[in-house]
Write a structure and sequence with these properties.
two-stranded antiparallel sheet, 17 helices, mainly alpha, two-stranded parallel sheet, about 425 residues
């Protein structure tokens, strides 16, 4: 009961529940902590409610207990320190603070918060992958070597695909042709085409159901024939490059013999003598000079050493030198041989514009190997010396004289010092 004073000064007792919320006085609630003290409100539990369900049960009780709790919920009760836990549970929500005083986490966008689980998942996957790789390296070292080589090869291959896509987009945007590209982009595009030609049949074989397991076994057994260079180890790369060079080196004597036989039928006696002396010098194991090749350059424009005038057997031999299949009709052999030689000529012009000194040792060795020299076991200095001689020959020729490049791959590399064997 609450005592109220009316307008005439008469005091009157009014039930507490009948008063409007605006006239309710503040109520002090103290929870009985010790058992020896007398409770102020009979029916109170020995402590504050410990769950939301217990709070609801208290609110449903009739009488003073439920009324006081309703007053607490309406904010009309003042709760001192002994009932701080009930105050924290029942106090109304505070208004948000001024934006300038909010913690930095509140200033993040929803997209930034949504990326946290994804970044945590990626970090967890990386950690598990590193742990798995350490387990393989410690337990199965040979299998780990194959696994790491394949993983590294896939990464390099996909990076190469992105770079090729960028080069293609640049060519389309600038409306330029292949021969107008810089040397590195031109070489990368050329090598990617050759890798793609080698990888497409393997991809077709793995299309049928369960055929990929057979393809994986074949790639493990025949890595040189089925895998591209990205999936070779450093030891395999040196071994396979030696094998490929030995295969094309078998065609070198046939090229020189073919030049010797055709030179005997030349009408010009001076050119016939120069050509026979050049072939004889190469057969004796001497390394020719670039000036000796440029002296007979006119013979490689038309008859008898031009691409369109060569015999079919000579075309097949030159195709083996350029790593092209010789099992094609003569029309396709001439076209492929001429297109590859022109491509090599454009690469030489772009390399000369860039400068041999700007190339790394790996790029110089790869360029020498492409042009017929086995550079696997040569020093970088020897490779740069040979490449300088090659550029002197290549960049002095016209487009109609590119047949001399195909024969020059043999004449300049067959007897080069430290490249025999």
């Amino acid at each position: 009961m609450v005592t109220c004073t009316e307008g005439g000064g008469e005091r009157r007792s009014v039930p507490l529940a009948s008063l409007p919320p605006s006239l309710l006085p503040p109520v002090v609630i103290t929870w009985p902590v010790s058992r020896g003290r007398r409770r102020r409100f009979p029916g109170f539990p020995p402590g504050p409610p410990r769950s939301f369900r217990a709070l609801l049960l208290l609110l449903r009780r009739p009488g003073r207990m439920a009324l006081v709790l309703r007053l607490v919920l309406r904010g009309r009760c003042r709760v001192p320190a002994p009932a701080a836990s009930l105050y924290l549970a029942l106090r109304p929500a505070e208004p948000p603070p001024w934006p300038g005083l909010r913690p930095p986490v509140c200033q993040f966008s929803a997209n930034a918060n949504s990326k946290k689980p994804l970044s945590a998942l990626v970090s967890k996957v990386k950690y598990l992958n590193e742990k798995y790789e350490r387990f393989l390296e410690r337990t199965f070292p040979r299998f780990y070597q194959l696994y790491s080589t394949f993983l590294k090869g896939f990464r390099i291959f996909f990076t190469e695909m992105k770079e090729i896509r960028r080069i293609k987009a640049n060519m389309s945007y600038r409306k330029i042709q292949f021969h107008q590209l810089p040397y590195r982009e031109m070489e990368r595009l050329r090598q990617f085409r050759r890798d793609l030609i080698k990888a497409i049949p393997v991809g077709i074989l793995s299309l049928p159901p369960f055929a990929n397991y057979l393809v994986l076994l074949l790639m493990y057994l025949f890595p040189r024939q089925l895998l591209i260079r990205h999936f070779w180890t450093s030891k395999q790369q040196a071994e396979f490059l030696d094998t490929y060079h030995n295969m094309r080196k078998e065609a070198y004597p046939e090229v020189v013999d073919g030049l010797m036989n055709l030179s005997r039928s030349l009408a010009d006696s001076q050119l016939r003598k120069q050509m026979l002396d050049l072939c004889k010098k190469v057969q004796e194991g001497c390394h020719p000079d670039v000036r000796e090749l440029t002296a007979v350059r006119t013979l490689f424009v038309g008859h008898p050493f031009g691409i369109q005038q060569l015999r079919v057997q000579q075309l097949k031999v030159l195709s083996r030198v350029l790593f092209l299949t010789p099992r094609l009709p003569s029309l396709f052999l001439r076209y492929r041989l001429q297109s590859h030689i022109k491509e090599l000529h454009h690469l030489d012009q772009a390399m000369l514009k860039l400068g041999v000194g700007q190339l790394t040792d790996e790029e110089v060795q790869a360029a020498c190997y492409t042009r017929g020299l086995n550079s696997v076991h040569l020093s970088p200095l020897a490779c740069r010396l040979w490449l300088a001689h090659w550029l002197t020959l290549s960049c002095s020729l016209k487009d109609a004289e590119t047949s001399l490049l195909a024969h020059g791959m043999v004449l300049l590399s067959i007897n080069f010092p430290s490249s025999k064997g």
